[in-house]
Amino acid sequence: MSNAFNLTPEMVEKLRDPVFFTETLGVVKGYDFSFEGREHLHDIYRDSHPRTIILASRQVEKSETVARKLIHNAFTQHNTTSLYVSPRHDQTIRFSNDRFYQSLKTSKGNGILAQSLVKQTASHYNFANNHTIYFGSAWNDGDSLRGVTADNICFDEFQDIEEGAYMTLSETLSHSDKVTEVMINGKVNRLRGNIFITGTPKQTGSVYEKFWNLSDMREWNPRKKVWEPQNDPEKALFRGYHIVQEKMPWITEEELEYKKKTYDEMKYVNEVEGLFYSGLAKPLTQDMIDKCLDPNFKMWHKGRTDRPAYMGIDYGGGNSAFTVVKIVAHNPITDQLDLIFAHRFQERHIPTLVEKLKNMIMEFNVQGVVADTGFGAMQNQTLQDTYGNLVQGCFYVVGTREPEEIKENEDSTMLTVDRSYQLFETIDMIKEKKIRLPYAHPEDISWTFPHYTCIESEPVQPTSGRSGYIRIIHPSGTNDDGLHALNYARIAYEMGSRSVEAELGEERTFAALDAMGFIM
């Protein structure tokens, strides 16, 4: 780089920072490149993770970011090869000429970056430091690029690239000398070469969605100006960034509202919200959840005698390794239901899990528990041996004639509820901001947001001629345990906040805990 620019060693070292490099040398539409108001891009430009995926709305400077990262790689990685891939040949040529080369030619110092080119065609650039960039397409599974040996690959417009092309082109990294060690699930993984994926999502079920769900799914918090992972970074296979129009400072609420009224649903979800679309309605969005967040409210560490608490449990089972617990308490000042605690246990050993739940019930002075009975029959029975009908199993049914009714069995240890009706009750509370979520420490709660936003609703018309209903589902590969745990906690609060009469006309007193002096 110093030979190309005739710079001092100190300046060469500073230019290794991609943000400094781009602001020092970049020009956009005749103006000096500036990251002012674009602080969310700093981490993306500087991220050295070898597997990065960007989920982006339209018009959020995605293509500009791709071009600038490729240019920075070209001037800081000597004797290496980069590969840019888009779905179609015409897309690739247009990006090569209109984005990449124009950024070189219009750079400061009378196009100083372009002066370092020693060879240039629309599909092949070679620089003085022996960095080579190939521009190709993924048409026909990327066979035309199979013979390239690469160190970096950028997949652009990934929503239109097939999984077979991704696998074929990823093999071009097999001989790269660039090896990065990444800790995943407690083990060191040696990843060869770098892969950078960008695109604007379309339908659900794509390889793009699969890879996004394998990332740490970072969302930008414009208030704190930080990226907040929604999945555990230590377990993620990709570093993920969701760039959405709503959180871009140059896009106004009026513009968003106009688009919402004039775009069809799929176009709005894909290109404005930057989300995958299944054709089904999304009952909850991140925007709805954001309105329930209180940055001054933090989770409790133990219960309070003046605020009865209620617990919901969704046990891990099947494809889920987590048991999710939510605890709520009514706020008499705001008349909201406060989520005072949320936790997920990765605990398969049932006796250990039950002991932890018992400790939690005592620590938070829990006055009612509702837990799913699908994977929790044994756990619930063990808890009921100690706490009696303070712990109630919950059995979901669908399409009932009286969906609003909550049925109890004779000893009040089991509830039967209409699944869709009760879930919509919780969903409506979130939409109406009747639930307050703790956000003083975002890392404590952010992991649960995808559990809310992944769900979809679809109409069901039974063949028996009975009335239809709306069913809540979640796409394959997503997890909605956190929503169910919150739903159970809300039901527990509802059961505890009204006088529940037993068959003999006596108010339920949870005799097991009363004998322990636990009931207030």
Protein traits:
alpha/beta; 520 residues; 10-stranded mixed beta sheet; single chain; disordered C terminus; Rossmann fold; 9-stranded mixed beta sheet; Nucleotidyltransferase, domain 5
Q: CATH topology of the largest domain, anyone?
A: Rossmann fold
Oligomeric nature of the chains = single chain
Q: Tell me the major beta sheet.
A: 10 strands, mixed
* Total individual domains: 2
Strand order of the largest sheet: 5-6-7-4-8-11-3-14-12-13
Describe this structure as you would to a colleague.
The protein is α/β, with parallel strands linked by helices. It folds into 2 domains: 2-243, P-loop containing nucleotide triphosphate hydrolases (Rossmann fold), CATH 3.40.50.300; 287-514, Nucleotidyltransferase, domain 5, CATH 3.30.420. It is 31% helix and 24% strand. Strands 5-6-7-4-8-11-3-14-12-13 form a 10-stranded mixed sheet, sandwiched between helices. Strands 15-23-18-17-16-19-20-22-21 form a 9-stranded mixed sheet, with helices on both faces. A hairpin with a 5-residue loop joins strand 21 (407-408) and strand 22. Helix 5 (62-76) crosses helix 6 (89-105) and helix 15 crosses helix 17. The model is unreliable at 499-520 (pLDDT under 50).
